[in-house]
User: Which sequence fits this backbone?
């Protein structure tokens, strides 16, 4: 009734200020009512742990409602509005940065090939293996070199080197810890300034590396001195006719025989080839071959055949260069065949190992 009288009185008054005064009073009354209602709801929640529908409200939900009310109140309050806006903008920027970081991380994981499940293993196609490296009937192969007997006097022998028609017929040694041991020791480990034919630990003993370095002394070209090792290389392999007639090189392993063909013989710097060339890196073998073929001095000689392309394993027979200690003399040979049972080259045997049965 009081509200109706106030409304009638305000409506019938000619003074607009009365109406304005009533409307302000009505707004204040509404605000007070809302406040009172809110206070009742909060009191119900705090005392009874129930929402307006009578259901239990977890403490986390009540806390969330309280935070939302505080944020809403801050935006309605002119004095606090600018701080609320600043905090909101900062939070939005932080969320954006975190989201961008997560996207970048996921992209990097995808680029690195990181997956939750391992990729399927694709078997190698046998047709991709060079034909010269395919071994047939390997289970039937019997080496003409009895390595058990050989290692009775040459414990560290890993292979046997033979060049038909020359004096080169030696075990290839590889000391298990000391690369320089066979520089001045015979295969039986007795001291000998003539040393042995050997490879270093940086090369695999199965000769599967792109380039295997085989070292041997040059005994000043003295044919009457034993062992000759690689003494005649510089004098003989610089002759194209000699190279052509003695181009086959055989390396015998316990489970197979490898046949190589000499490609060139050239002077080279005394740099340690394996130290300065990482042949497992793409392109390095080809660069090394180009280096050797660029040596066109007096003692350089190149076989009448194509330059190797680096696809097949190579060996380099390395010895001292006469008259110049700053150089080495290198004989490069390329793998051309893995000898199997039935091969025409299976009968090629170093004379020291020919038996009545083999002969």
Assistant:
């Amino acid at each position: 009734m009081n509200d109706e009288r106030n409304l009638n009185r305000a409506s019938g008054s000619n003074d607009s200020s009365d109406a304005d005064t009533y409307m302000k009073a009505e707004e204040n009354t509404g605000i007070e009512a809302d406040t009172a209602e809110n206070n009742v709801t909060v009191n119900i929640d705090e005392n009874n742990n129930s929402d307006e529908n009578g259901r239990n409200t977890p403490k986390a939900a009540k806390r969330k409602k309280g935070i939302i009310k505080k944020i809403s109140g801050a935006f309605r309050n002119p004095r606090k509005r600018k701080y609320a806006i600043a905090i909101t903008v900062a939070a939005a920027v932080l969320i954006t940065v975190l989201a961008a970081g997560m996207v970048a991380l996921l992209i990097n994981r995808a680029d690195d090939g990181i997956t939750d499940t391992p990729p399927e293993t694709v078997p190698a196609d046998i047709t991709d293996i060079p034909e010269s490296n395919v071994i047939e009937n390997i289970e039937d192969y019997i080496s003409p070199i009895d390595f058990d007997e050989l290692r009775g006097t040459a414990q560290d022998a890993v292979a046997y080197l033979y060049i038909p028609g020359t004096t080169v017929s030696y075990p290839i040694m590889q000391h298990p810890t000391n690369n320089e041991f066979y520089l001045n020791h015979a295969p039986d480990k007795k001291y000998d300034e003539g040393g042995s034919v050997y490879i270093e630990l940086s090369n695999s003993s199965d000769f599967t590396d792109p380039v295997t370095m085989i070292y041997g002394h040059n005994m000043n070209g003295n044919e009457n001195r034993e062992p000759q090792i690689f003494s005649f290389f510089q004098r003989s392999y610089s002759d194209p006719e000699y190279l052509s007639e003695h181009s086959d090189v055989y390396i015998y392993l316990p489970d197979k025989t490898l046949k190589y063909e000499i490609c060139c013989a050239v002077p080279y710097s005394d740099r340690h080839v394996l130290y300065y060339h990482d042949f497992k890196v793409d392109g390095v073998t080809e660069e090394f071959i180009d280096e050797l073929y660029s040596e066109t001095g007096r003692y350089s000689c190149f076989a009448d055949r194509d330059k190797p392309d680096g696809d097949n394993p190579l060996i380099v027979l390395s010895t001292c260069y006469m008259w110049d200690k700053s150089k080495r003399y290198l004989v490069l040979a390329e793998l051309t065949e893995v000898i199997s049972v039935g091969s025409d080259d299976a009968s090629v045997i170093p004379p020291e190992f020919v038996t009545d049965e083999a002969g």
Observations:
- The chain is about 35% helix and 15% strand.
- The chain has a mean pLDDT of 75.
